[in-house]
Amino acid sequence: MAAITKGTPVYVWGTNEAITNANVTSISTTKSYGNVQNVVNFNGNEIEKRMDDTIETGTMTLQYEAAFAPAAAGSNITIPGAGASGADVVFYITGTAESHTNNGFRETTYNVKKTQYITLT
Fold first, then answer.
1. Region for 116 from its dihedrals, namely left if φ exceeds 0, alpha if ψ lies in -120 to 50, beta otherwise
2. Which of 16, 38, 117, 119 has the most C-beta neighbours closer than 10 Å?
3. Is-above-0.85 flag for pTM?
4. By three-state DSSP, how is residue 84 classified?
């Protein structure tokens, strides 16, 4: 019987080196703006709105296939091909949660953040 792979392979960098024995089971991100400016005229009517400094936050759940040590908050996680035109996206891990299920797999959920003008390496 052939091996079956479900999910998207993910690579984690930071304090734990590269971990390649995981699959992404869900990703959810939200974009907002850190700098919103409203321009009003002399009557107090809004005539323009400027939004800048994109902030992307979200959660990512990983299901591991072998023993692992989850990445700590403060580490970076790279999602291959998740950006515009298939570019890799680097997120900052702001928190972690772990789940264990009877007759199931261990899962780790990362809370992630990416800010427009902060370069993560």
1. alpha
2. 16
3. no
4. helix
In order, the DSSP letters of 4-73 are ---SEE-EE-STT--B-SEEEEEEEEEEEEEEEEEEE-TTS-EEEEEEEEEEEEEEEEEEESS---PPPT
> Which position has the higher pLDDT, 82 or 108?
108
Once rounded to an integer, what is the mean pLDDT over residues 58-84? 76
Please check whether residue 109 lies inside any domain of the structure.
Answer: yes
Distance CA 29, CA 87 (A): 16
Closest CA to 25 of 55, 53, 62, 51: 62
The single-letter code of the amino acid at 9 is: P
Residue ranges making up the domain that contains 44: 8-115
| Of 116, 117, 119, 112, residue with least CA distance to 57 | 112
Q: What letter represents residue 20's amino acid?
A: T
Tally of domains within the chain: 1
